[in-house]
Amino acid sequence: MPVTQEKLRQVTPPRAVTRPHEEETGKVRVIYGVHSLEAGLAGRTVGSVREALAQPMNISPRAVALVNGAEVDATYTLSAGELLEFVRYAGEKGRDRAWMEERYGVLGAGAFDLDISGQVYDLYALLEILGLAFEDIKPIDAHVMGENLYAVRYFDPEDRIIVAYEFDGQFRRVNEVIVHIAEWMGDAYFEFNWGAWCPWSI
After folding, report:
1. How many CA atoms are closer than 13 Å to the CA of 135, on its beta-carbon side?
2. What residues make up the domain containing 143?
3. Closest to 92 (Cα-Cα) out of 194, 184, 173
4. Are the beta carbons of 72 and 46 closer than 8 angstroms?
């Protein structure tokens, strides 16, 4: 006697839904240069992961965050199975102090907050949302460069450079201009005892 479909449904237990191992454990793969790891980071923001791994993976504060190849900001929330990469694009090196000051003004001459889409951000908030808010980074000033184009300048004591980081109204990187701090310090740069950190005040 043939078994009806209804009988089969009654006696056959439902099949368990299987998920990829990455989804079960909430794993996300993180890569920066030669460093790579997998960890249960699903549900965390890119900014929090970056802060936690900055020292263990030696992530540069100027590295841009990509998720599955697309650039994201610090507020992006990671999902299981995603690939988070930190990459450093080539900035406009070779520019000098005169060029930077012609474009952005002398150091400290810019604004200390920006109104972007009706929201006011101070320098530290800008660095935070751009994924640049590391302990040793020293914000300098901010600028409105044009329609939907902004810039924030900061001092990176590890690389001993002044960086002008340009971004759009969605906080996406547009460009970086990099000038070595020796352009401002002159001979004092070579006499200064840098050690492991830099207390020199701009």
Report:
1. 6
2. 97-191
3. 173
4. yes
Question: To which H or E segment does residue 182 belong?
Answer: helix 182-185
Strand partners, 178: 163
Q: In this structure, is residue 16 part of a structural domain?
A: no
Residues 155 and 184 in one domain: yes
How deeply is 17 buried, as exposed, middle or buried, from its count of CB atoms within 10 A (0-12, 13-18, 19+)?
exposed
Do 140 and 68 lie in a common domain? no
Q: Are residues 28 and 81 in the same domain?
A: yes
For residues 63 and 136, state if they share a domain.
no
| 130/81 same-domain check | no
Q: Are 87 and 34 in contact (CB under 8 A)?
A: no
pLDDT digits (tens, 9 = 90+) for 21-78: 545 579 999 988 768 889 999 999 999 999 899 888 878 777 888 898 788 888 999 9
| 73, 114: one domain | no
User: Which tokens hold the place of 10?
Assistant: 């009654």
Contact between 166 and 175 (Cβ < 8 Å): yes
Walk across the sheet containing 35-40 and list its strands.
35-40, 27-32, 83-87, 64-67, 70-71
Query: Model-level pTM?
Result: 0.59
Q: Please, which residues bridge with residue 32 across strands?
A: 35, 86
Looking at the fold, whether 70 and 112 belong to one and the same domain comes out as no
